[in-house]
Amino acid sequence: MIAVLTGGTGGAKLIEGLVAEIDPAELAIICNTGDDCEFYGLNISPDIDTITYTLGGLSDSTKGWGIRGDTFAVLEQLKRLGNDGWFNLGDKDLATHITRTDLLRQGHALSAVTARIAHALGIRATILPMSDQRVETRVTTPLGEISFQEFFVKQRWSLDVSAIRYAGVEQSRPAAGVLETIHNARAIVICPSNPITSIGPILAVPGIRNALRSTGTPIIGVSPLIGSTAVSGPAHKLLQAVGLEPSTLGVAVCYRDFLKLLFIADDDQHLSRQIEALGVGVRTTDIRMPSVPDKRRLALEILSLIR
Amino acid sequence: MIAVLTGGTGGAKLIEGLVAEIDPAELAIICNTGDDCEFYGLNISPDIDTITYTLGGLSDSTKGWGIRGDTFAVLEQLKRLGNDGWFNLGDKDLATHITRTDLLRQGHALSAVTARIAHALGIRATILPMSDQRVETRVTTPLGEISFQEFFVKQRWSLDVSAIRYAGVEQSRPAAGVLETIHNARAIVICPSNPITSIGPILAVPGIRNALRSTGTPIIGVSPLIGSTAVSGPAHKLLQAVGLEPSTLGVAVCYRDFLKLLFIADDDQHLSRQIEALGVGVRTTDIRMPSVPDKRRLALEILSLIR
To answer: How far apart are CA B215 and CA B212, in angstroms?
Structure first.
């Protein structure tokens, strides 16, 4: 079993590569839920859904979110009925949120709901939320403290950020299966996801970071940055907001207490010695994954190290 | 102000005729909510929606339910995710249910939610649920006691019915505006709706039947039956189930304590004397409304009596 810690977009690319190279049943994916949100009274788990749609062969790789070829009839009518429509939700995508909300309200745990949806879509990999409790990444901006989705989607991450916190994380516990997955894995992969708002919330759930520190299993990461910019999204901006260098070096600092090896971009080779000084090994490669062959190549590089 | 008591399909036809002949702002419609149900965790009010869509110019007069030209992308995906899909819900229709459920969960009353949706759709008539409390029409069949939707939609009203009750009605109160509407109306129209499962639940809400009995306002009804069969739906079957004659005479018995006049089909003229013996006046006419001119003609016949 290989364990993976991931957010949405960047992680989904690497996971798509991994399941093309190994039996998906051997993959257990621990997903960030700090971006989870509620729109129109529906419970939305953007990162779980991106991973689920990717593994179910439904994802829209052009848009980077939602379901390929989805329509927007419900959203259009929701707007007509006077609802705010800035958070885009397709019709098929809404079926996921309606199902999740219904099951959660019936008292099922998010982990059980996630497994049920994955099973219905024929997914053989295990998808685990980091926690069954609600944890909410909050971003302090000149507009005040807002949710991650408001910062990321509504404001298109244009606002200055002075602080980030994971509301509720102290009271949260790892979801059933998360610690077991970390303990039993023969390798653990930290996906090229945002270290502050995607991997950060997972690490902040009490017990998870300690489990990573204490396991003897090799933990291998992939940097989401090239130079001073994230391959996609605001990782560099958020690293800076918490006082870290907006580069692969800042990423290594985030994971230095448990990471054995970090894949970094060829262009960042000059950072190798500083990263190694943190106690983290380095491999340089092409970390961009614009195409399926790129995803598979990077997955194979990681897998060959594990083997 | 003219007050109307209605269920879904048959009532919607007459209401479409009425709003074509008078200023819609002069119409206050008291809707049955005994058919309200929950699917996929969403609160659905079929009769309110049929009336709302009719007044908003959205209704599908061919199907008799839902929104014209609606698509079914969400429902297809809900089925794929393992949900039971026997209750048809279109995409635009779902936007209504999502909005309603969200507002109800926020603590708004059904009457406020109904008004808000009607306003968003540009509707000038007043649409009132009979009650803001949950009342559920339950039907006893050989399969046991089931909901009205299960009887009507899933079983296509094919089962034998031995009893009908309105669960929760004793604890319910008329929604804000209902009693005022009855007291202040210059006329009250009982639509050609099912007397047992459409008008019956409204009359069973404590205070409504008494208000109809004690008001001096003329109350005029239209029978939903011709001969021994309802123009649409199972009214005749349900009249029989409660021990009444499956005919316009049975309808008159249901309303005898407050109805001044009943419009009945020309073919039912032979029942006139028996109905009049109940203290209810009779007018014979063509009560079918397959087309818009028919709806307007019948509405005009009623309005000319009121004037």
So the answer is: 5
Mean pLDDT of chain A: 96
Residue A281 bridge partners (DSSP): A261
Residues B272, A144: Cα–Cα separation, whole Å: 73
CA-CA-CA-CA torsion sign (B119, B122, B125, B130): negative
Rounded to whole angstroms, the maximal C-alpha distance in chain A is 58
pLDDT tens, position by position, B202-218: 999 999 999 999 999 99
For residue B21, report the phi and psi dihedrals to the nearest 5 degrees: -110, -20
Longest Cα–Cα distance in chain B: 58
Cβ pair B73:A78 closer than 8 A: no
Contact A74 B74 (CB under 8 A): yes
Residue intervals in chain A for CATH 3.40.50.10680: 2-135+170-306
Give the C-alpha separation, B169 to B205, whole Å: 6
Q: Which residue of A has its CA nearest to B75?
A: A95
What is the CA A216 to chain-centroid distance, rounded? 23
**Is B221 a residue whose pLDDT tops 90?**
yes
Going from the C-alpha of A182 to that of each of A214, B36, B47, B212, the distances in angstroms are: 10, 47, 53, 69
Structure tokens at A253: 């600092």
Q: Does residue A71 surpass a pLDDT of 90?
A: yes
Question: In the numeric block, which tokens belong to residue B185?
Answer: 């109306």
CA–chain centroid gap for A274, Å, is: 26
3-class state of residue A75 by DSSP: helix
Chain A residues with CB under 8 Å of B81 CB are 95-96, 99, 117, 120-121
pTM, two decimal places: 0.94
Written as one letter, the residue type at B188 is I
What are B104's two structure tokens?
């109800």
* DSSP E strand boundaries for chain B: 2-6, 27-31, 37-39, 42-44, 126-129, 136-141, 144-147, 163-167, 187-190, 219-222, 225-226, 229-230, 261-265, 281-285
Helix (H, G, I), strand (E, B) or coil at A73: helix
Work out the end-to-end distance of chain A between its first and last CA atoms, rounded to an integer number of angstroms.
Answer: 12
Domain B2-135+170-306's class?
alpha beta
Model pLDDT for residues B62-106, shown as the tens digit of each residue: 777 899 999 999 999 999 999 988 888 999 999 999 999 999 999
| B82 contacts chain A (CB < 8 A) | yes
Total length of chain B = 307
pLDDT at B37 over 90: yes
Q: Within 10 A of B52 (CB to CB), how many other CB atoms are there?
A: 24
> Across the strands, what pairs with B225?
B230
Q: Which candidate from B40, B70, B95 shows the least CB-CB separation from A102?
A: B40
CA distances from B72 to A226, B67, B76 (A): 43, 11, 6
The complex scores an ipTM of 0.92
pLDDT, one tens digit per residue, over A228-237 is 999 989 999 9
Our CA angle for A108, A110, A113, nearest 5°, is 65
Tell me, what amino acid is at B267?
A: D
**Given pLDDT bands bounded at 50, 70 and 90, which one contains residue A63?**
confident
